Amino acid sequence: MATFTNRITELIGNDYTTIASNSYLDLFNAAVSEVADMAPPELLLKYAVDPSDLDENTTTLTTVEGKKVLLVTRLDDSSPRLAQECKPVSIQAFEKAKDANSIYLATKYNPVYAYITDGGTTALTILPEPIVHEDVKVYHFTYTTISDLAVSTIAGLPNELENAVVLKACINILQTYISDFVQDEEDAELQQMIMVQIKTLSVSFEKEMARYMEQDATPRGE
């Protein structure tokens, strides 16, 4: 299988490695994050790492930085116990979910979660809190940082999305070239050619991502 280095070179040549401070790696990693954010959680779940488990001893998930939460489930105490999907809500709605007199009260059959920040620490917090026999699972995708493009896979990312990542990375890199041309007043004709190439790649990227969109063309990510 071709490496990402080869696949990018096939589309835009190998001059991209001359970008200052090797920022092409940052641009590639940005493409990974952008594609992951646009992808439907259902697709990312296929390749998700083991979910984080919460229980009566660990009721919140504090290691949320650098993660895209895909699904949160909470067991109820029915027989058999069923995993109820937790609905993501805002901090304001989360506060209402605590009120026993509110129609928005969270129950074990209608649980919710929110990102609560306290003292500089953000934690994924669930209502009702997990208790004995009512555990929580948090499925997530960890944003990957590639340090060498001489590889052919991205940990945790479905193979189906790799082509979209390559296309988006090429667009990001070429846009950096355009910025350099503007600042350095380089060849206007070459700049125009690169702009045309960006437009062509953008069309290909949009078509590629459209494969994972809802029928109304709305991205299915968070």
Topology:
Layout: H1 4-12, H2 23-38, H3 41-45, E1 52-54, E2 60-61, E3 67-75, E4 83-85, E5 87-88, H4 91-96, E6 112-118, E7 121-127, E8 136-142, H5 162-184, H6 188-210
Brief overview:
The protein is an alpha+beta fold. It contains 6 helices and 8 strands; from the N terminus they run αααβββββαβββαα.
How is the main sheet built?
4 strands, antiparallel
Tally of DSSP helical segments: 6
Gap between N and C termini, in Å? 31 Å
The gyration radius over C-alpha positions equals 22 Å
Approximate helicity band: 25-40%
Percent strand equals 15-25%
Structural class: alpha+beta
- Principal-axes geometry comes out as elongated
SSE series: HHHEEEEEHEEEHH
Q: List the uncertain runs.
A: 215-222
- The largest sheet has its strands arranged as 1-8-3-4
Mean pLDDT comes to: 88
Number of strands: 8
Write up what this structure looks like.
The protein is α+β, with helices and mostly antiparallel strands. 37% of the residues lie in helices and 18% in strands. The chain has 6 helices and 8 strands. The chain has helices spanning 4-12, 23-38, 41-45, 91-96, 162-184, 188-210; strands spanning 52-54, 60-61, 67-75, 83-85, 87-88, 112-118, 121-127, 136-142. The strands form 2 sheets. Strands 1-8-3-4 form a 4-stranded antiparallel beta sheet. The longest helix has 23 residues, at 162-184. The two termini are 31 Å apart.
